[in-house]
Amino acid sequence: MKKLFANRVLNNDTSDLDEIFKNSANPENISFAGGFPDQHLFPDNDLKQAYRDAIEHDGQGIFQYSSTQGLLALRQKIADRMLTHADVQVSADNVMMTQGGQQAIDLVAKLLLNHGDAMVVEGPTYMGALAAFDTYEPTYYEIPVDDNGMNIRQLRKTLKAHPEIKLIYTIPDFHNPTGTTMSAKRRQALVSLANQYDVIILEDSPYRDLRYSGQNIPAIKHYDTEGRVIFISSFSKILSPALRTGWIVADDTIMHELIGLKSAIDVQSPNVTLAAINSYLDSHDIDEHIATISASYQIKRDAMLTALDQYFPQNVHYTRPNGGFFIWVTLPEGVDAKDLLNDVVLPQAHVAYVPAACQFASRKVKNGFRLNFTNLDTATITEGIERLGHILQPAPMIVPATSFAPQF
Amino acid sequence: MKKLFANRVLNNDTSDLDEIFKNSANPENISFAGGFPDQHLFPDNDLKQAYRDAIEHDGQGIFQYSSTQGLLALRQKIADRMLTHADVQVSADNVMMTQGGQQAIDLVAKLLLNHGDAMVVEGPTYMGALAAFDTYEPTYYEIPVDDNGMNIRQLRKTLKAHPEIKLIYTIPDFHNPTGTTMSAKRRQALVSLANQYDVIILEDSPYRDLRYSGQNIPAIKHYDTEGRVIFISSFSKILSPALRTGWIVADDTIMHELIGLKSAIDVQSPNVTLAAINSYLDSHDIDEHIATISASYQIKRDAMLTALDQYFPQNVHYTRPNGGFFIWVTLPEGVDAKDLLNDVVLPQAHVAYVPAACQFASRKVKNGFRLNFTNLDTATITEGIERLGHILQPAPMIVPATSFAPQF
């Protein structure tokens, strides 16, 4: 049967990841592997009331087919938020609702990528985005990120050498998996380069509103002068991931095609969900909710950083994010974080993380891993980092600390 | 910007369809074009109660990420229904929830189709499926359907001549757009051919439970001996399309890959929706509901057939479906149903239908159109068919009636 499968499937091996998440689910282990928000922070009662309000106030029409683009009132609220929270001025016509941020990535990949088409990703990057892109079989160019985001000098060189590149995928705010944020200067430079080389930028920003320190920076889309930046985000991290509701912001030409593609993929998003989110936004101050969860996540981040400072050896580098969900750990060169996980960390320390390789399109960088700090309480975070620190402490950490930015 | 788009987008022109549905939405016109269920028949209050029950009884977990495959309790109910309603024996592990039947089609296309891969579709077929398949750029082979389903003799010849064919897409029950049903004998023959030529069958059966006359026939999947039939269906036509909930039934090897693909497309379906449908099925007899809507749709079908018998000229053929949503009209050869629609039917009779061409992969057959009978009351159905009959009556219907099965 397998010989009938498309190449995109045969090329796609998720067994590594499956195993990681299976180990994470084992309650004996402290798992820093997932990217889950803390479910104790969900506004459960408010969301439930929002569902009740939506189904009570909306008539029979709520159960009939509706528009592919999604509920206008909700799109208008998102357009308004884009201005106040990202310095991006758009109308509701330029917003489309999607099944989470994931479908937004899939849609943009489907819009742009023929088999073999060239695109840029950050190294490391969000592994779910790689899973989506992989199915369109692109040629990847990987640009390292540092504490100020994507390395623009390296990007310029790559674009010059490969004028066939069509798409740059970036997570500028509290990057997954490194937690770092792209500076305003680099955002402007990125848009200039995209204009110069005629490239689309996919700006994936699900963590944008979850800032715990430092100053807000306008979205990359804010600097867009030619309608070539597609902005995507989601309610998954600020409200609830089970809503499966995200959005795309794009200019008219691109939006027109994305609507057609979504229609062919799943016709439309579920009306009741969209109406419930719209109800929630009508009745509650989501920014107040975001402030509450941010305060809690800040405490968790600080607990993890404190534990890292205390228990991790000098030759292990880690990022100090201003927001989001993740801290990135760079091990000395030559250490394979996946082998370390399977051979030592899981069996001896009973701790899980996501090793570097599956977060690089090249799969070549091995000496790093991603830690999530949002989904555990502070005592467990401290305990897990202490256990991990003990493993990392003695050996084989004899190589001097390297810069965080991976080389390839 | 457009030059950056993938070929699948550049090849895809939906402007015809956009125009048809724009005209349908005009309240001055009687529209037989859409494929909408009658929203007055939705079990609104029961569905609303099901949402309330789901959010009341399920804890915080309902708002956290969950499994890609979907709620086990609901999958188990669907597995049970597959046995009682389709003579197919499967476990819950072989069921995955999708965003409507449309996503199920997209997933199977993604599983199997490399650019240029060969597949079989019926002529005519569901235009939404063509939209989904088109984005994977297959090579289509079109097999005509008659009152007993796909022409198996023609299929055999095609498979023999094109051993590279990987996939057969069929709508065996109350076919969209013709309303006809594949005989049991042809179902068996279809599976034999698929075994012989190593082909996957995609059995799309959203109308299966909506039978108004005649005897039930086992699903094609019932005859599957080698795990090569993928069955898909949906709650859209029997409960509500806005739930955006369908399902795939497939054997282990195929299911494993489909789960991976769905995870990369949108992670999972929304928990609250799945829990609400599960609640509905716990508290209500969906078969009783299906019996109620079937009784109403039967009256609508009969009204349309009576009007067709009364008002349509002898040289126009139409199908007499035992269930589903649609009747297919075959005009004399040489008549272009799209020109007729735009030049005469819409401006003079103010009636809309879906002309043949966009329902054929080849786009070559023009002398037919699809009529929907579920979404209007009987008086409006009769009025619309009478108006249409007056247009068709005098001219240019001078060619003798042809067989329904389109030639190509």
TrEMBL record, chains A, B:
GO terms for molecular function: pyridoxal phosphate binding; transaminase activity. Gene3D superfamilies: Aspartate Aminotransferase, domain 1 (3.90.1150.10), Type I PLP-dependent aspartate aminotransferase-like (Major domain) (3.40.640.10). Its cofactor is pyridoxal 5'-phosphate. Keywords: Aminotransferase, Pyridoxal phosphate, Transferase. The keyword Phosphoprotein does not apply. SUPFAM superfamilies: PLP-dependent transferases (SSF53383). This is PLP-dependent aminotransferase family protein. Homodimer. Belongs to the class-I pyridoxal-phosphate-dependent aminotransferase family. It comes from Lactiplantibacillus paraplantarum. Pfam families: Aminotran_1_2. One of its GO terms (biological process) is alpha-amino acid metabolic process. Residues 43-388 form the Aminotransferase class I/classII large domain. The lineage of its organism: Bacteria, Bacillati, Bacillota, Bacilli, Lactobacillales.
